[in-house]
Amino acid sequence: MALPDDFLPLDDIPEPLKAPLAHTRDRLASSLEQAENLAEMTGGDSPLEDWLSLSDERRRQLARVLAISSFVAETLVRDPEWLLHLDASGELDEPPTAEALRQWLDERLEAAEDEAALHAAIRRFRRARMLGIVWRDLTRPPGLDMWGTAATVSRLAETCLEGALGWLELHFAPRWGRPAPRRDGSEQRLVVLGMGKLGAGELNLSSDIDLIFAFPEKGETEGGRKSLEHQEYFTKLGQKLIAALDAVTADGFAFRVDMRLRPLGDGGPLVGGFASLAGYYQDQGREWERYAMLKARPVAGDLEAGAELLASLRPFVYRKYLDFGAIESLRELKAMINREVRRRSMQGNIKLGPGGIREVEFVVQAFQLIRGGRDTELQVTSLKTALARLPELGLLPREVVDELTPDYVFLRDLEHGLQALEDRQTQTLPDGDIDRERVALALDMEDWPAVMARLDEVRERVRRHFDAVIAEPEEEVEEAAEPEDTDVASLEEWRALWRGELEDDEARSLLEEAGLAEPEVAVRRLRTLRHARPVKAMQRIGFERLDALMPLLLDAVAVSETPDLALERVLPLIEAVLRRTAYLALLRENPEALGHLMKLCSASPWIATQLARHPILLDELLTPETLYTPADKARLADELRQALGRIPEDDEEAQLEALRVFKHAQVLHVAASDIAGTRHLMKVSDYLTYIAEVVLEAVLAMAWQHMTRKHGFPERRGEGRCGSAPEFLVVGYGKLGGIELGYGSDLDLVFLHDGATQGSTDGARPIDNAVFFTRLGQRIIHLLTAVTPAGSLYEVDMRLRPSGNSGLLVSTLDAFADYQREQAWTWEHQALVRARVVAGDRTLAERFDALRGEILGRERDLAALREEVVKMRHKMRDHLGSKGQGDDFDLKHDAGGMVDIEFLCQFAVLSMGHETPDLLAYSDNMRILETLEATERLPADECRRLREAYLACRTAAHRAALTGEPARGRNADFREHRDAVITLWRRLLEPAS
Fold first, then answer.
1. Which pLDDT score is estimated for 824?
2. What is the reported pTM?
């Protein structure tokens, strides 16, 4: 038995599509023949007989669908029995209910024993359902339209998400456990927000699904082999969920998943806690994220909690007032769309091209953003619903909506026709004649010219309505009242320049007269800022503040010492605070603060960058008495204690953020005093070191509290257990140990403890002491390096610990002592010279100091020591020093530079410490040199010259860090200093040379 040649009726098939359809029929016949042969061999049922019994109407539909959709053809060639299943279930004529979909998928997933089986089941389920969806979309049973198709695809995506999530939760429960209940006792699950068209319930046939993952409350999982922080658990679960739908397997994929709409996009956490999400959108949410959140809807997981989250974010999305800032943003977005379409020649793209799908959506979203705060009827995710409500609210004439609605439906039908061809996401009109015929047939239109004629009409209407909604209103010119002592004429000129009202030659002349060396560059920078999308997105009050500030800012630039630099460095800061217009008002209303800003940014690009990255620091400009007066260590500790005391103990995220803001603000105070010349270099490094020490003490306390709350207290080496105060040492090496931190210095750390080697903690979840202290070290590193909205605290380098990167992260004090006594290399003893305890237990610190004194105070073979030190110095210089001769040199690594002086000090301590114990007291080079002079181990004149050379090199390197320049010095300026260093180096360490 075979499939007859006339099985597919060709009466309704256009002539160009008959030959391709015949080829498809032949492939189906071959597939059915193979199925029949297999049935005969196995005694099973053959689908061929049931195919032959299909009604004439069903065959006509089959011919039409196969002529249009290669996706359907490939699916039926692979699985011809699927057509019979869908026919028998009625799925070819009407979509299954949500309950039926869930039941069908659950039955398939019950048999899945591993993730591979899960992936296969979901993909085959999705393909079978899409077969029915495409069939119905192309045959249009009574009552089905584009909206119905879009809703059904959305429902399918939601079913797959929920089914996969439920399976994954059960599958990994034995390993990871389940999340702890919320504070109110309710179950806690992942919240999956659908964004874009999924959130609207209006997915197209082959759409990506845009998602955001969230969870309600922090905590730890329970009941599994391994307890996980909720953040980690939900992240792992989210990753598995993405793979369940998105990963490409032998069965293809189910849905492409796009997570880029989450806070910070690909660079942000995959999953966010409710509190962190609320804080992010409140403090950092950008205008485009408001657009995105218009469509947000819980689609899987804890739907009730998802609704709770969105309710908390509603004030971010919908402003209580008429949002004129949104109007500005929309105008810029219109221009951006137009530019993008022209740049990429996308006129054939029915989504992004002129008069396309995006422009209809844009019209609706414009009203939602501008009016949604007041007209709460617009607070819906569905475009269809929102569009229908615009006339009722008097926002668009009924006749406009009556045009836009069918035009949008036509565009989406055309999009579905394009995607039905191969189940591929595309909105680009086809070039080939066959595909054009297929699309025309899908739309029930006579031919391709008829499609294009209708499309041109639709696009023209959509573009007209699009332009009308966001048309540029006439500018209203208002003169702002200026303070009496202000040079009004000058400010008016600056205002005209900012607003782009001057001719190019007028603008150039004005800037030249103000002392700018590159007026064309300045004009271009101002124009770029004025036309930037964030400026266009500002609320009216914000834009008015910017408009009022810019003349004052340009006037301040003009009177600065380096106006070109000042403008270059200040404008990025202005861009950074455009959405936080309170800062624009701050600068306008506080001319003194504006003056401080100009002074600091002119002097240091590093400060300008810090202010732009962390605009909250602008608050510091209001109090010059503290801005230029860094706090000593006691005051720093008190201020940080007060700041952290205002935050709940269990809100680690807020504590981390407060720590970072504190650190950035205090470093700004130091830099400001540095630039103002009110602090000597040594004091600057002292203050930067104090800040690090206070932060490290706080971080150690936070990490200790976190670990002991989870696992209890570890056993001591002798008797008893540790208490609430951390019995742990953070040892600073390098610049931190040497009290020589710079603005961008990382922290060289070593972690030590004195816990029992075989002991364990006494909490509800006890762990071995070694594991406890290792995790404590890891926790400290995490708290220091984790990136929050306010950045990170410090970069951390742990390579100076025993055995370096291959060694344990945390050592006992005894093991550290054994290593230093028996295994440490000479360079490690050199490093120990600059080591000191910077945070931790005082008793342990005394033991460390004693050990350091013992190791450094050993009598050493002078020749061997000299050989090792010189060998290491040459190795460093070869690797890090300048490669050729020039007019300048590397302040740190070249001969006669800072590292030579450091090595001289270390050599002196290691070679003389056994005879001169005073040398063992200090970890910083300046006091070691002073001690060498005081003990007469080196001539006073040589020690003085070394100190002067070291101070000169450090000052120059320090200044280079502030000004953003390489740490290099001119040979002519440093010749005397370098000669003094090189002379002593040769005398002490390389006498033979």
1. 92
2. 0.53
